[in-house]
Amino acid sequence: MTRLLFIFFILLSCKNSYSQNSNCLTFDGNNQLIYSSNQALNSISTGDFTFEAWINGTVNPNSQHPAIFSNRNSTTEGTTFFFHSYWGGSASKMLCVQLFGMNYLVVNNGTYGAEILDGACHHVAVTKTASTITFYVDGIPFGTRVVSGTPSTSSPQTLWIGKDHIINSTFDGSISTLKIWNVALSQEDLNKSINCDSTLFYSPAAFWKLNEGTGQLVLESASNTYDNLGSNQSIENQDPIWNGQCCIQDTIDCDQYIYNVELTLPNIITVNMDNINDVFTPVAIDGINKMHTTILNRWGNIMYSTDDLLINWAPSNISEGVYYYIINYTSFSGSPKTVNGFFHVIY
Predict the structure, then answer these.
(1) At 189, phi and psi to the nearest 5?
(2) Among 62, 195, 244, 289, which residue carries the largest CB count within 10 Å?
(3) 41 and 175 co-located in one domain
(4) Any idea what the CATH number is for the domain that residue 274 is in?
């Protein structure tokens, strides 16, 4: 008899909603920053990119050029993603990216035509495709600029989040869900990123949720490494503050599209010693760091328990029927999740 293997897919949901949350970072506009060892900007070099973040700030008391991040080593080397002060007749501070000493911006924030630092949560982004830089606010493009030459984003300087290296241009307000991509996302893909859409094909080169809520370290999820608040792990006046002025998703449930979290399990096990579907083990597993699995019978008795990512339960001397699993796992983002389901054991 030919038996079919049915596949059970675990799908992770996302909610397109953003609000104030007490587990995010606020920078004081004076000397607070995050030191990061991340090398994404050096890897991008002269290639295409996307920079994006959620921010919430006001014009006053922000510094003249409040920085979202910077790795500038000098006025002619490195990259800064920031807001440029009033210039060229603009009535607003302007979203800007500096590459190799050249500032790229759209006067008065182009077709948006208003202040982005208005005390509300906004998503801001810039993309570079070949020689064109496009500026976005809340997923809508508001202008473009042509790149001069082939500037590089790389620099030997440490990446700082919330402050520029060269001038004291520290951000005053909140920064969260910061991503650096080594591709230029289209408007459609950028909005997939904003909305946690699992159909987005790409993964970011660097990603800080900045939602830990406590402690001296923040996770850079793409490389699964931690960065310091301030210059080191000791408490100091350079540390941004955890409080309730940040903009993050109501549900941080974006692991599938960012980290390609996949857990595909069989729902039939054939215990007939033919070495085909005899073992309960994932058909596919990806993006999971740790996992604990418990298998129970229909009366709730534990039949098997393991921390093995492959589970590898080879049932024997048990009755045919329905069995249940409870899986608690942690993805490489550090987010814990629980999934449960059932499968059939037949002979």
Answers:
(1) -70, -35
(2) 62
(3) yes
(4) 2.60.40
Q: What is the mean pLDDT of each run of 10 residues along the chain (347 residues)?
A: 35 38 79 94 96 93 90 91 94 96 96 95 96 97 97 96 89 93 93 74 84 89 89 88 68 51 88 85 86 94 95 91 93 74 92
Task: Decide the pairing of beta strands 24-28 and 172-181.
Answer: antiparallel
- Quick one: DSSP state of residue 313? B
> Domain span at residue 328?
7-12+260-346
Q: State the CB neighbour count (10 A cutoff) for residue 344.
A: 14
Asked if residue 255 belongs to a domain, the reply is: no
Q: Please tell me the predicted confidence (pLDDT) of residue 107.
A: 96
203 and 233 fall within a common domain: yes
Q: Report how far residue 238's alpha carbon sits from residue 254's, in angstroms, rounded to the nearest whole number.
A: 30
Place of tokens 């909140």: 174
The pLDDT value recorded for residue 303 is 95
**Residues 264 and 3 sit within 8 Å (Cβ to Cβ):** no
For residue 335, what pLDDT is reported? 63
Q: What is the pLDDT of residue 233?
A: 83
Peptide bond into 61 cis (omega under 30): yes
Domain count across the chain: 2
Q: How far apart are CA 342 and CA 347, in angstroms?
A: 17
Listed residue (287, 328, 289) closest to 305, CA to CA: 328
Q: Are 160 and 295 in the same domain?
A: no
Identity of the residue numbered 201: F
How far is Cα of residue 323 from the mean position of the Cα atoms in its chain?
Answer: 36
Backbone angles phi, psi at 122, to 5 degrees: -135, 145
Residue 171 forms part of a structural domain: yes
Instruction: List Cα–Cα distances, 222 to 131, 172, 246, 305, in angstroms.
Output: 27, 26, 21, 30
